[in-house]
């Protein structure tokens, strides 16, 4: 799950978050989701290779990565 929060740490509803998988064996679904009333958007991701995969989440011009290291 990915959480969108305001500057006070409160969840923000209605934020569109996109997800992109890159690297060997990385996958994510869905490609985009919108946060609910709690500020959370749920994604499923997996890495089938031992390392080198990356999932990038983007919302409102901000980016966060999950990088597989093993």
Q: Can you walk through the features of this model?
A:
The chain is mostly beta strands. The chain has strands at residues 2-3, 16-22, 26-29, 32-34, 40-41, 44-47, 54-59, 62-67. The chain has a four-stranded antiparallel β-sheet with strand order 4-2-7-8, with no helix packed on it. A two-stranded antiparallel ribbon has the order 1-5. A two-stranded antiparallel sheet has the order 3-6. It is elongated, with a radius of gyration of 13 Å.
Structural class: mainly beta
Mean pLDDT: 93
Q: Which strands sit side by side, in order, in the main sheet?
A: 4-2-7-8
Low-confidence stretches: none
Shape category: elongated
Amino-to-carboxy terminus distance? 21 Å
Report the total helices: 0
How would you spell out the order of helices and strands?
EEEEEEEE
In percent, how much strand structure appears in the residues?
Answer: over 45%
The number of E-state strands comes to: 8
Biggest beta sheet summary:
4 strands, antiparallel
Share of helical residues: under 10%
Radius of gyration using CA atoms only: 13 Å
């Amino acid at each position: 799950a990915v959480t969108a929060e305001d500057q006070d740490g409160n969840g923000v509803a209605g934020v569109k978050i996109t997800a992109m998988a890159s690297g060997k064996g990385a996958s994510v679904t869905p490609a985009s989701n919108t946060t609910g009333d709690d500020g959370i958007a749920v994604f499923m991701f997996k890495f089938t290779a031992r390392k080198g995969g990356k999932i990038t989440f983007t919302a409102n011009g901000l980016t966060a990565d999950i990088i597989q290291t093993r």
